[in-house]
Design a protein that fits this description.
about 130 residues; alpha+beta; Transcriptional Co-activator pc4, Chain A; four-stranded antiparallel β-sheet; two-stranded antiparallel sheet; 6 strands; about 35% helix
Length: about 130
């Protein structure tokens, strides 16, 4: 290929939009063919010009094995980051309808789980604490 030859990329299948800045630039996960060659799976930027034409920008090809390794690595990273993150139990209780009222009426928490019981030793302890 000569330096003057035009490189043409064609999105054969869009698997997903990873981000969109709202100003004409997106990052996509797609299968792309370059100059009619066999298509490869890629993560690539796409810019929309003033004519509405989408122009493929910088990116990388990524195999299925590499994608699986990326996902695995990301999950491990998130797990490490989340391991020591403090838990806001107040926000958790407000996500479940009437959970605060249930706790106040004798339902109890045991080992980090909500035990919805109104009788038994734990419930009696809870009721005594709230009396």
């Amino acid at each position: 290929m000569k330096k003057t030859d035009k490189v043409v990329g064609e999105v054969k299948e869009l698997h997903g939009v990873l981000s969109d800045n709202g100003f004409g630039t997106k990052k996509i996960y797609a299968t792309v063919s370059w100059n009619g060659n066999p298509a490869k799976t890629e993560i690539r930027s796409v810019r929309t010009n003033s004519d509405g034409e989408e122009i493929l920008g910088k990116g990388i090809s990524i195999s299925d094995d590499e994608m699986e390794n990326l996902i695995k690595s990301y999950k491990e990273k998130k797990k490490k980051e989340d391991a020591n993150k403090p838990v806001d139990f107040h926000s958790i209780f407000h996500k479940t309808e009437d959970i605060i009222e249930k706790r106040e009426s004798g339902h109890v928490t045991e080992n980090g789980f909500i035990v919805l019981q109104e009788t038994g030793k734990l419930a009696e302890k809870a009721k005594k604490r709230h009396s």
